[in-house]
Amino acid sequence: MRGPDPRVVLGLHRSRHERRLLTVALDLGVTALDTSTNYAGFRSHRILARTAGDLLPKFTVSTKVGYFPGPDGAEHSLDPVRLNSAVEEAAEDLGREPDLVFLHNPEHSLREAVPHKKDLLAAACTALDGATEKGLCAAWGVASWDPSPLPSLVNPAVPRPSVLMVRAGLLVGAGTLDAADALVDAWGLGCGEVWGMSPFGGSASASVWDRVDPRLFLQDGGRLSRVQAAFRTAYHLPRVGSIAVGTDEPTHLGQLVGALAGRVEERTVQEYRRLLRDRSRDQST
Which of 21, 176, 213, 233 can bridge 217 by disulfide, Cβ–Cβ 3.0-4.6 Å? Predict the structure, then answer.
C-alpha cells in the first residue's frame, strides 16, 4: 500500500528563529513548524510570538514538553502536574494553542523509574491526553530519541498518541529502527502518524555525505544531490510520513522540498536494514 505523500516539517532546534525563514517556508509550501519548550534556552515560544506572531496562524505548530529549567541546566520530568502546566504555558507564550504537543524523550526519566516505569509512562500520557481534552492543544504525541525502552511499556492503560516522532535516516542504528517499528506496532499507528527527525544525524554538511552516495537508494537518484537523496531515503528508515528538519538557510530548505520528488527503491532499503541487523548481531557476539 502506498503511504501518504512525504511532508517537510521545519524544525527549530538550534535555529535562529528568523522571520525570513518562516516566510520562505510558506512560499515553499512548508506549513508545519516544530519547536520545544526548551529550545533557544527555553525562549523559543516567546521568540516566535514576538518575531512572527502574525505568521503563526498560517502554520500548524507542534511543540514538546518534558524538559524544565533546573539549577544545573535543563532537567527532565514526567510529573503530570508539571507537564500540564508546561502545555498551558506553551499556549500562553505562543499566543495560541499548539496544534500538537509531544511528550519529549520520556525514556530520559523512565530509565531511572524502576520498578514503576509503566505507571509513570501511563500517567504522563494521560496528562497530555487530558490537556487535549481541555482544549490546551489540538492533539498530543510522543517524541523519542531512543525508543528502545518504550514498546514493552505500552499497555491498555497508556493512551494512544496521535503522532510518534523518532530518529530517521541512514545513520540510525538497527536497534533504534527496530524499536521504532515495535512502538509503531504497539500503538497501531499508520505511516502518516509517524514523524522522523534528525535525518542527517546532526549535520547535512558532515563528511560522511561526501564518502557515501545515498542516491543508490533511489530509483531516479541521478536528478538529486547526495544530501537530497539522504533526506528522501530517511522517509523509509523507518517508514514515516513527515520529517522535522532544521535549517537557517532558505536555499537548503528549498533543496529538501525538491527532494520529495525522488522515488525510493524499497528493496534496496530493506536490504540495507538486513545488513544493519547482521552487523549488529556480529558486534554483539
Answer: 233
Written as nine digits, the cell of 239 is 517508514
Contact (Cβ atoms closer than 8 angstroms) between residue 106 and residue 121: yes
Is residue 103 a contact partner of residue 142, using CB atoms and an 8 Å limit?
A: yes
What is the CATH classification number for the domain harbouring 35? 3.20.20.100
123 lies in which domain range?
A: 7-284
Residue 99 has pLDDT above 90, yes or no: yes
The length of the chain is 285
- Mean pLDDT of all residues in 147-171: 96
Question: Does residue 89 lie within any of the structural domains?
Answer: yes
Give me the half-sphere count of Cα atoms (radius 13 Å) on the Cβ side of residue 41: 2
Q: Are 62 and 34 in contact (CB under 8 A)?
A: yes
Residue holding cell 500562553?
Answer: 92
Across the strands, what pairs with 11?
34, 246
Return the amino acid letter for 26.
Answer: L
Name the residue among 84, 26, 93, 74 with its Cα closest to residue 254: 26
205 CB burial (10 A radius; 0-12, 13-18, 19+): exposed
Which amino acid, 234? A
Please indicate, yes or no, if residue 17 is contained in any of the structural domains.
yes
Task: Give the integer Cα–Cα distance in Å for 236 and 229.
Answer: 12
- How far apart CA 226 and CA 208 sit, in angstroms, is 10
Residue 85 and residue 103: Cα distance in Å, rounded? 13
Q: Which residues lie across from 34 on neighbouring strands? A: 11, 62
